[in-house]
Design a protein that fits this description.
Strand content: 25-35%
CATH superfamily: Vaccinia Virus protein VP39
Number of strands: 12
Oligomer: single chain
CATH architecture: 3-Layer(aba) Sandwich
Number of helices: 7
Shape: globular
Order of helices and strands: HEEHEHEHEEHEHEEEHEE
Radius of gyration: 17 Å
Distance between the termini: 47 Å
CATH class: Alpha Beta
Structural class: alpha/beta
Largest sheet: 7 strands, mixed
Length: 237
Amino acid sequence: MTGKDLFGKAFMDFYKGRPHALKLERDDGYVDEQELSQYFNGYDDFPVCEKRALKHASGRVLDIGVGAGRVALHLQSKGFEVVGIDISENMLKICRDRGVKNLRRMSACDLRFKRNSFDTAIAFCNNFGLCGNMWSVMKMLERLHDIVRDGGVFLASSINPIRTTNMAHLRYHDINRARGRPPGQATLRDMYRGMKGQWWDLLMVTRPELKGLCDRTGWTIDRTYKGVMDVHVLRKI
């Protein structure tokens, strides 16, 4: 049985006090259970790398993959104007209920904003790679370059895929290389309450890969804060 927006359904159930396990299956059979509570954390429980990166935020902010709204709500409380986007209507409903003021249903791969609309863009929780592959992420960076003002920043979160000793991940990297893909491109699907979602790709990048993307799209890596998911402060040049 297949289902649409299983990610959003799982979060809505969790939010309403009816939690069930949400699992993420990779196309080599590797399965990982998602920890939903972290998406509702307050600022005190944010990863240290995110807290440090958020000090670079200024002006009007775009939150890409707003999720349950934790980052948007924190920045709103500090007086920032924040626009949160997500493709899941369930996630947007949760955000509205929790008090996020400005939300739009929109994909990270189709950023429909005017030039110079934002001073800061944010993509935490691995959302830097939502567009799935090198070409599509490059196009996202090009579009962000248009809609972020001169000197603005993009706070981009990504697991460094090769910083692992997990043999299942290392074998998957070898599979990717054999089929001409970067090691950190993963083909995934959600599994929730007996349903399986459609396959989709997520790109996780090494620092040299990130630098190559930045060099081609008008960004520079200002600094990196390391964590389970590194947060890179990319500055528009």
